[in-house]
């Protein structure tokens, strides 16, 4: 009996330590992601999407390769099917999310594209209602509905108070980006592959595809500050951001960590506003609904995990 009592605090400490580590990783990812739209906006003002994306994937591939080289973990043997699943999760989560997000940034006001792209937590909530057995499905469903109403207000609150002021492709790309990130956040904790092994192949595929894209558009290698900013987008928000987020999800799942992730649209929208981007009052109301519903979803899921 004494031994059993002695073990309980140790198990609790380990769980607490893992939770703290997960929150630290998640906070690091959010801090990096919050700068993505602002830096991306400055580069897209003078460079095509293909070049910005090529620099991003190059920077990310260098980061993932460095992490892989430093890692002493030996890969466990996996079946061909499991390897293909891991590759699909990494490709959709990294390449799909980032390429579609930047197409949206280039096709519509960045501040609006950013808000629509960060509806992925609401999509995760919808998946939880469908696939899991949440404690309060009605609350999750209501929060998701309110969030998507907010998205509609963001879109409708554009210039001249009319719908779809940006290119229609931009809105579709922003929603597609959110779907890809929601899929990744659900699946990354369910595959056995480590984050660096999961993301490195996808980033290399991204380098190859965006290089071909650059060749088609006409390649001109950026220099000076633009080169630094482009590589930062790859090494920071894409590289370390994805690595930190993947580590956090593998440590803690998507309960408490999810609450931290919902700070990203708040911080990124604030930075864009400080840089001169503006929303109409209608779009501001929509942004409040989007962010508020994301926070509500995150808090509910965190409470559900604590209850379990």
UniProtKB/TrEMBL annotation:
Main subcellular localisation: membrane
Record SUPFAM superfamilies: Multidrug resistance efflux transporter EmrE
Protein location: Cell membrane
Membrane topology: Multi-pass membrane protein
Protein name as it appears in the record: EamA family transporter
Cross-referenced InterPro entries: Diverse_Substrate_Transporter, EamA_dom, EmrE-like
Kinase in keyword set: no
Keywords, alphabetical: Cell membrane, Membrane, Transmembrane, Transmembrane helix
Organism the protein comes from: Mesorhizobium kowhaii
Entry GO terms, CC: plasma membrane
Spans traversing the lipid bilayer: 12-33, 53-69, 81-103, 115-131, 138-156, 168-186, 198-215, 227-245, 257-275, 281-299
Keyword Magnesium among UniProt keywords: no
Ranges for domain EamA: 22-155, 170-297
